[in-house]
Design brief:
The structure is a single chain. The chain is of the alpha/beta class. The chain contains 8 helices and 10 strands. It has a 6-stranded parallel beta sheet with strand order 7-4-3-8-9-10, sandwiched between helices. Strands 1-2 form a two-stranded antiparallel ribbon. α6 links the parallel β8 and β9. α3 packs parallel to α8 and α6 packs parallel to α7. It starts with a strand and ends with a helix. The mean pLDDT is 97.
Length: 225
């Protein structure tokens, strides 16, 4: 087993496991980050998510330099919407719904331009890319088996949005026994107050779900080790 590295974090140091820790990039896809996609159809200011791009890119570079595992997720449904329940598709009153034609193809449909990950964070050939039909990255994806095959025990989370797909995936990971860290500036929300609340919730009661720390702290600890 790799020697653990203690990284300064909230609520106390995070035990980082080199080689056993996968970087997770949640849903940094055009449909959420760019104008004309699903996020915008809900009335959101997508520019609020852009500050996470730089920190995620820096983390990707570090992981790739070490040859550590990387997971990218995309929220995307089958073209016939058979994996998108009415409870998800028909809620609220957005200008467009999942599956409707938009500026980047049908919203949140596999293979459409809008579901692709933004160019600045594009996956490389040896990295896992998971299409997920729900908020969490484990449901109906087989990801847990893939991570077990790679002997991954720790997960570092980034991506969007903090309180929805990121938090759901982190909670799912906690239930499966992974030791989880959320990168504070590597995640964003359309609602800053929701991000702040999520950061507080996951570390409550002795890191009940996990830890959080800034990307600079994580990168510095990796470099020094």
């Amino acid at each position: 087993m790799s020697e653990l590295i203690e990284i300064s974090a909230t609520p106390f140091p995070y035990p980082f496991a080199p080689g056993k820790t996968a970087l997770v990039v949640i849903d940094m896809q055009r449909d959420f980050v760019e104008p004309g996609g699903f996020g915008a159809s809900l009335g959101n200011d997508v520019s609020l998510l852009h500050s996470a791009i730089g920190p995620i890119a820096a983390l990707l570079a570090a992981w790739r330099a070490h040859g550590w595992p990387i997971v990218h997720t995309r929220e995307a449904h089958l073209a016939d919407l058979s994996d998108c329940p009415p409870a998800k598709r028909l809620r609220g009153a957005p200008s467009l719904r999942i599956g409707d034609p938009g500026a980047m193809g049908r919203l949140l449909i596999r293979g459409e331009p809008g579901t692709s990950i933004i160019p600045a964070l594009a996956p490389q050939r040896d990295e896992l890319v998971i299409d997920k039909p729900g908020k969490g990255m484990f449901w109906a994806t087989g990801l847990h088996r893939m991570l077990q095959a790679l002997e991954v025990t720790h997960l570092v989370f980034t991506g969007v949005t903090t309180e929805v797909c990121v938090q759901t995936s982190m909670r799912e990971a906690n239930d499966r026994g992974y030791t989880c860290l959320l990168v504070e500036d590597g995640t964003e929300s359309y609602f800053p107050a929701f991000k702040a609340a999520t950061l507080a919730m996951i570390v409550a009661q002795g890191a009940i779900i996990g830890w959080h720390t800034p990307s600079a702290t994580l990168l510095a600890a990796i470099d020094s080790a």
